[in-house]
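W.,

You were right to be curious about this one. When I first looked at the sequence I had no strong expectations either way, so I just let the prediction run and decided to look at it fresh. Below is the sequence, 271 residues in total, followed by the output.
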Amino acid sequence: MYLSRHEAAEGPRWALDGRYLQQGFSLERLLAVKAEDVRDFLEGQSLEEGAEDPLLPPVESEHEVWASGVTYLQSRDAREMESADADAYERVYVADRPELFFKAQGWRVVGHGDGVRVREDSHWNVPEPELVVVVNSRMEVIGYTAGNDVSSRDIEGENPLYLPQAKVYDGSCSVGPGIVLCGPDSMRGLCISMEIRRSGEIVFEGEVDTSQMKRSPGELAEYLGKELAFPVGAFLMTGTGIVPEDEFTLEAGDVVGISVGDLFLENEVAR
C-alpha cells in the first residue's frame, strides 16, 4: 500500500494507491493506529477519483523528522576523516546507544520536485540519501519513504557541537515522494542509490544496500522513543552509506536524484 499527499484545489489531500482518501483524512489519524491494524484501517476508508494533483511532502506540519548518524561504516569513515575529533565517531559506531538528532519540523520539509539548499556560510556541502522510516505513536515502524539529509561537512567537521548548524536550516530536509506502508522486515536489503547531475552531466553516482546498516530501523525507532513521546508519530532518517569524494561539494543548480527501493526523490539545489 502506498500513501501520497497532493495539493488539491480544496487543499492538501492524501491518496492511497493513486486514489484520493476522503477529505479530512490525516496522517495523524493513521499513526494513532497499531501497526498490525494499519491495513484493515485503510481498507475501511472510502476512496474517490484518481489523485493527479501535484505532490506535496508526505508529512504534516506537526510531524517531526529526526535523524540517525554513523549507522554505516562508510559514514563513520567519512566523519572521522573530516573531523577534528575523529574518535567520537568511532565510539558512537561501536556503542549500544546510537546518534540521534532533530532534523526538521514538518512544515520545514520539502518534497519531490522542490528545491533544497546549501548554507551561505559553508563551502563543503553534500546530500545524504537515506531510508526514512515512519513510526506511529507507539514507536512501531509502519512504513518508509526516501530522504535527503543535506549537510555541511566543514561545519560539522570543525566541531561536533556544531552538528545542529550543519544539519538543521531552511531547505536542508527533503522527504518523498510518498510512503510505502510495510513492516521493518520489508526494509531489509533495499537498494539506495544517488545520482547528482550538473549542467546535465553526471558528476557523482553511488549505491548502497540497507543490509549494510549496523543498526536496524526497529532498533533506531526504539531508541528514539526512549523517554520521548511522539503522540502524532514521527519520521526517522536512518543514516547514509553513500558519501561523495572529499573534493566534491554541491553547487547551485545541481540536481540530486535519490532512489530507495522503488521510490524516487529529486531536488534541485539552491543557495
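Here's what jumped out at me. The chain has seven helices and 18 strands. And, maybe more interesting for your project: Residues 2-56 form one domain.

Coffee later to discuss?

I.
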